[in-house]
Amino acid sequence: MTEHEALIFEYTIVGPDPQLVDGREISTGIAADWAGTAHDLGREILNRWLTDPPAEHAEERVLAVEVTGTNGAYAAVDDPTPAEPSVHALEVAIETKLIADHAAEQAGKELVEAMRKANRGGLSKNRVADKAARVMSRPTALKALKG
Question: Which stretch of 18-32, 43-57, 114-128 has the lowest confidence by average pLDDT?
Answer without folding.
Answer: 18-32
